[in-house]
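If you are new to this repository, start here. Below is one unmodified record pulled from the training split, so you can see the exact layout before writing a loader.
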Amino acid sequence: MTKRRLHNDNNNVFPRSSELIFTVYGPDIGDLVKADIEHDGIGEQQSWYLEQVSVECNGAHWVFPCNQWLSLQRGDGKLDRQLVPRGSQVKKVGREVPLKKLYTITTVTGDIRGAGTDANVFITVFGKK
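And here is the target side for that same chain:
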C-alpha cells in the first residue's frame, strides 16, 4: 500500500495515552509483513512515543509493536520506524473479497509525559503480494 497520512478530526493531535482509529482503502496486498511509520517533525509537540500499531482487514488482525520514541530530541533521534508484526489472527471469510480493501489502522500512543504529537503522521504497509 502506498504511503498514507493518518489524519484525524482532532486537529491532527495524537494525544498521550490515546488509541486512534483510521480507515484506509487500498489494494489487496496479502498477509502483512511490515509497516513503516513516520512523522514529519513539524508542530509544537513533535516527539511521539508510539506503543503499537494494529491493522485489521477482512477478518485478519496484525499487531506491530513499537514501544519507542519517534523524536529528534528523545530516544535515538529517529522520526521513522520499520515495524514487523508480532503475529496475525486470521478468520475465514466465506465470500469473494473485493480487489480494493478497507484497512482499519489503530495507533496507540504511550502514557509517558510528552508522548503525544501534533506532527503529521504517515504509514506504509507492506504485504506478501
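Two things worth knowing about this chain: The chain has a mean pLDDT of 89. The chain has no helices and nine strands.
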